[in-house]
């Protein structure tokens, strides 16, 4: 894997699977009904964990999801929580067509750092890190930081 930046780390012989589970929830029938108020499927957390257990036990998986409290602590060596300025987040969610209640609740979640607090309550504090997610440059920096962390972790845990 390599990012487009000239200063980004090069990681050779590293097998990492990136799993974006929002789409998988729909295609894999990992939901239990539909929430009309928020206009989205209701996640069946137990089925998601059951579905992922084998893949997670093999390692090398990056889980990309907007919540974490139902994922077992044993699955993760590090947790990154993305933090977005409210005005930026509002525009993003508005562009996605979120209804007013869903938009308001998501902004309120960001203001009160609900996901960061959830991560701190679910995992050891030393593995939880916040990263800014406001600009394309932040995205590039975050990818580079995560790649550096993976590279160091692999070095530290190689036999």
TrEMBL record:
> One GO CC annotation, please?
nucleus
Checking Pfam families in the record gives: AAA_18 (PF13238)
The protein depicted here goes by the name Adenylate kinase 6
Task: Report the domain of life of the source organism.
Answer: Eukaryota
Q: A single Gene Ontology molecular function, please?
A: ATP hydrolysis activity
InterPro entries listed in its UniProt record? Adenyl_kinase_AK6 (IPR020618), P-loop_NTPase (IPR027417)
This protein's record includes keyword Transcription regulation: no
* Example GO biological process: rRNA processing
List keywords of the entry alphabetically: ATP-binding, Cytoplasm, Kinase, Nucleotide-binding, Nucleus, Ribosome biogenesis, rRNA processing, Transferase
Catalytically driven reaction(s): AMP + ATP = 2 ADP
